């Protein structure tokens, strides 16, 4: 089977006022819902134009009200930045408010600069992450919350909120390094990577190897996903021109905090132009036929079952994003689902 998702940094590329930006983005999310996209995944970033949804749950509560079938969630909650009680209660609220459509991405936070603003040392992130993860996954299924850890102590706290999805919403994890698949595979987490095909294939192969080693049925694999920046138009030259214009605006937002502090990004690099991004295998622009051919080849080569598009980035306007979404849903998704 093959499903399709969306990843959104919610980066502000200079598209007018923030209030209009949020309204346009919600309009775009409504289009995802109408087009049959499976899930919408929202990034969490702080103190940077890369992420204008630093509190993902606030934006996602609006998504819950503006959509009917679309599943949604953070990719990821930066767990070291949350008190687990607050996060646990909000997870329950979102799952109830959406009728059980929450998808729950978890991570440690990839930016030392952002963590430092919160008074958290980057090297302390994994330990805090593990404690918060264990606490919320346990608390979801307990009537009373008890925990005695290095960062949090909770004693007999009543859990009056509950989830529709049992035992918990589907869990997601971002993977950049093939050597990092052991833990998410053991936990049975869905994964998404932004790596080029060759490394994405190493990630999916490594995940399946762990899955098989644990004696699990390969027919019941979680989602193994891969993201790509995509711009589509009936006019191939127009699509490439839009991508060439919008991508540097997105990259400027991505580099904002790193440039401010005179540092290089940790664990990830992005080229300066969309042409270079395309050559690296992480961006695709063209007409529907070109897009279909490239995505089909990438799905087969990377051995994924979940393709994740980034349609809204940089300074792309609502009508420009709409064209990509409509062409993708009308001319590409049916072909790829039919061939899966």
Task: Describe this structure as you would to a colleague.
By secondary structure, the protein is α/β, with parallel strands linked by helices. It has helices at 18-35, 56-66, 84-97, 112-117, 125-139, 182-187, 197-213, 236-260, 274-279, 288-302, 318-338, and strands at 3-8, 39-42, 71-74, 77-78, 104-107, 144-148, 153-158, 171-174, 190-193, 224-232, 283-286, 306-310. Strands 1, 2, 3, 4, 5, 8, 9, 10, 11 and 12 form a 10-stranded parallel beta sheet that branches. Strands 6-7 form a two-stranded antiparallel sheet. α2 (56-66) links the parallel β2 and β3 (71-74). α1 runs parallel beside α11 (318-338), α2 packs parallel to α3 (84-97) and α10 crosses α11 (318-338). The protein is globular and about 60 Å long. The mean pLDDT is 95.
Please give the count of helices: 11
Distance between the termini: 5 Å
- Uncertain regions: pLDDT < 50 for 5+ in a row? none
Give the overall shape, derived from the CA principal axes: globular
Order of helices and strands: EHEHEEHEHHEEEHEHEHHEHEH
How much of the residues is beta strand, in percent?
15-25%
Q: Give the rounded overall mean pLDDT.
A: 95
Rg over C-alpha atoms, rounded to the nearest angstrom: 20 Å
């Amino acid at each position: 089977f093959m499903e399709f998702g969306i990843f959104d940094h919610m980066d502000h590329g200079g598209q007018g006022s923030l209030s209009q930006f949020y309204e346009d983005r919600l309009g775009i999310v409504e289009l995802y819902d109408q087009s049959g996209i499976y899930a919408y995944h929202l990034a969490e970033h702080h103190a940077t134009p890369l992420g204008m949804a630093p509190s993902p749950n606030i934006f996602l509560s609006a998504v819950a009200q503006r959509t009917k079938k679309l599943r949604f969630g953070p990719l990821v909650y930066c767990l070291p930045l949350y008190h687990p009680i607050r996060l646990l209660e909000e997870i329950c609220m979102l799952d109830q408010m959406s009728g059980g459509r929450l998808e729950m991405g978890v991570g440690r936070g990839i930016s030392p600069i952002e963590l430092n603003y919160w008074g958290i040392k980057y090297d302390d992130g994994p330990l805090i992450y593990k404690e918060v993860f264990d606490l919320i996954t346990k608390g979801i299924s307990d009537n009373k919350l008890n925990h005695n850890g290095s960062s949090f102590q909770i004693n007999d706290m009543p859990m009056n909120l509950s989830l529709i999805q049992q035992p918990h919403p589907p869990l997601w994890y971002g993977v950049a390094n093939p050597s990092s698949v052991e833990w998410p595979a053991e936990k049975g987490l869905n994964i998404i990577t932004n790596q080029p095909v060759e490394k994405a294939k190493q990630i999916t192969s490594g995940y399946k190897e762990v899955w098989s080693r644990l004696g699990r049925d390969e027919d019941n694999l979680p989602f193994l996903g891969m993201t790509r920046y995509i711009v589509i138009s009936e006019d191939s030259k127009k699509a490439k021109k839009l991508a060439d214009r919008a991508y540097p605006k997105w990259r400027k937002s991505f580099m904002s905090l790193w440039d401010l502090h005179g540092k290089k990004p940790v664990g990830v690099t992005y080229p300066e132009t969309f042409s270079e991004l395309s050559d690296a295998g992480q961006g695709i622009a063209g007409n529907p036929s070109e897009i279909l051919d490239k995505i089909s080849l990438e799905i087969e080569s990377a051995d994924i079952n979940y393709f994740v598009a980034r349609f809204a980035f940089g300074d792309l306007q609502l009508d420009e994003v709409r064209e990509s979404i409509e062409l993708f849903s009308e001319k590409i998704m049916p072909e790829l689902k039919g061939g899966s």
